[in-house]
Amino acid sequence: MWIDKLAEGVLQVDTPIGPRFVRLNFKQRAYLLWMFRNFPSLPPQVLSQREQRLVDRACEENGFASMPGMGAADAPVIGRIERRAAVSEDVLPTRKPTVRSTSSVREPGSEAASA
């Protein structure tokens, strides 16, 4: 099975619009076979900088394609990168501190709550 992956394997990358597949050259396939030797899928957070650059470069150079559009519907998948949509963090405005009354005198008309 690993011979098939080495000869014709593709990399699956999960995107917000669905899985996409990347064709690789022989050297990239060999490196990715080693990278995915213990796990079928990996999140990008566990990849080293070198591995992340390799995946990014392969995606940029070769582009994404859906499997039917590649002409190789039965190409073996070497591994899967679990990419998620970049979640933009909304920056909340800083809250102003509430002003507390330091006076111990009660205002007229306000009653203390009794339990």
Would you kindly provide a written description of the structure presented here, covering whatever features stand out?
This protein is of the alpha/beta class and 115 residues long. The protein is built from 4 helices and 4 strands, in the order H-E-E-H-E-H-H-E. It is rod-shaped and about 85 Å long. A 4-stranded mixed beta sheet has the order 2-1-4-3. The chain has a domain at 2-81.
What's the number of helices? 4
Helix content: 25-40%
The average pLDDT value, as a whole number, equals 78
How many beta strands in the DSSP annotation? 4
Gyration radius, to the nearest Å? 27 Å
Unreliable parts: none
Strand content: 15-25%
Map the helices and strands:
Blueprint (H helix, E strand, L loop, with lengths): L1 H7 L1 E6 L2 E6 L2 H10 L5 E2 L6 H14 L4 H4 L6 E5 L34
Helix pairs in contact: 1-2
Question: What's the quick description here?
Answer:
The chain is α/β, with parallel strands linked by helices. The chain has helices at residues 2-8, 26-35, 49-62, 67-70, and strands at 10-15, 18-23, 41-42, 77-81.
Features:
4 helices, four-stranded mixed beta sheet, alpha/beta
